[in-house]
Amino acid sequence: MASFVPTSEETLADQRLYTAGWLTSVSCQDCLAVVGVQKNSAHHTSIQWSAEALAACPEMGRRPRELHAGCPRLQASIEQAVRAGQVPIGAGDGF
């Protein structure tokens, strides 16, 4: 059970900003699954999977949900997007 459920539009807007506002959409060059990506540093990558992306990725479909290993083809797609300047490195809020 959630301890806090936002109801005001201002609070919901803040919640969207902090959970998805700084994510950049990246498409896997293999299966075309689209995920949200944020790189706070060269070594830190956050990936937000949607239900649609999980369903589209054959690699993730082969694994039990409790495993946190990623898809190597998606990782290569993210790295290419970073090199191309499509995914900025650094926290969006300046911290």
Strand content: 15-25%
Helix content: 25-40%
The secondary-structure class comes to alpha+beta
Mean pLDDT: 83
Query: Quick one: overall form?
Result: globular
Question: Can you walk me through this structure?
Answer:
It is a single chain. This protein has helices at 9-20, 51-56, 58-61, 72-83; strands spanning 24-27, 34-41, 44-48. The chain is α+β, with helices and mostly antiparallel strands and 95 residues long. The chain has a domain at 24-83. A 3-stranded antiparallel sheet has the order 1-2-3. 14% of the residues are buried.
What's this entry about, in short?
By secondary structure, this protein is an alpha+beta fold. The chain has helices at residues 9-20, 51-56, 58-61, 72-83, and strands at residues 24-27, 34-41, 44-48.
